Amino acid sequence: MDISCIVLAGGKGLRLGQNKALEVIGNRSLLQRVISGFSFFNSDIIIVIAPNQSFSQLIDYPKLRIITDIYPGKGPLGGIYTGLAASDSFYNLVVACDMPFLNQALLRYMIQISVSFDLVIPRLGNMVEPLHAIYSKGCLAPLEGLLKQGNLRVTELLTLVRVRYVEAVEINRFDPKHLSFFNINTEADLETARQLTRGDRSNDKR
Questions:
Q1: Does residue 144 surpass a pLDDT of 70?
Q2: 3-204 falls under which CATH superfamily?
Q3: What is the pLDDT of residues 91-141, one digit of tens each?
Q4: Do 104 and 163 touch, CB atoms closer than 8 A?
Q5: CA-to-CA distance for 72 and 198, rounded, in angstroms?
Q6: Separation of alpha carbons 185 and 152, rounded Å
Q7: At what angle do helices 140-149 and 75-86 cross, to 10 degrees?
Q8: pLDDT-derived band of residue 49, with 50, 70 and 90 as boundaries?
């Protein structure tokens, strides 16, 4: 399937107090780790940034474009819209830049089941993961409508498009610890991610 990958990197990182996309875990920045997690797709990668940001150090990655958010200050909803509008693919994998433990098997599964749906989104209990999801171009018009209304909750999109939920029983087949959805908001999260990364390297040496 033709699919592009969209990384939302325009967040302010208010709780962390700095640009978390450039925080280093295991000798790579969070953003570089996410991009590396997409490398097996051999697809276009679109990085959506805020107007005052620059990630020029990433220009060496093949098939990578860095674009500025069309709706700055409108949160993830604006970033998703911007990425979808810029993409040449009908289906697009959208993730946040602060998710260092993407699971390739789970992502492949989500792509495989995305045909006939506009949004494929993980659901754990009552919680959904809109920043680890597959969006089709069919989401563009509903997203634009929400933005124009000032309704910035991504979950509002769920009632407007064809949704396929990826339930816990499916997720557990590939990622039983649900590390795919671990994201960095605080210094404690950052330290936990670094400890997990060190643990992975230790296991690799055995």
A1: yes
A2: Spore Coat Polysaccharide Biosynthesis Protein SpsA; Chain A (3.90.550.10)
A3: 999 999 999 999 999 999 999 999 999 999 999 999 999 999 999 999 999
A4: no
A5: 36
A6: 20
A7: 140
A8: very high
Over residues 159-175, the pLDDT tens digits come to 999 999 999 999 999 99
pLDDT at position 205: 39
**Helix (DSSP H) and strand (DSSP E) numbers for the chain:** 6, 10
The domain locations on the chain are 3-204
What type of residue is 142?
Answer: P
How far apart (Å, rounded) are the C-alpha atoms in residues 171 and 167? 6
The answer to whether 21 and 98 are in contact (CB under 8 A) is yes
Instruction: Give 95-118 as a DSSP string.
Output: EETT-TT--HHHHHHHHHT-TT-S
Residue reference for tokens 């671990």: 182
The radius of gyration of the chain from alpha carbons, rounded to an integer in Å, stands at 16
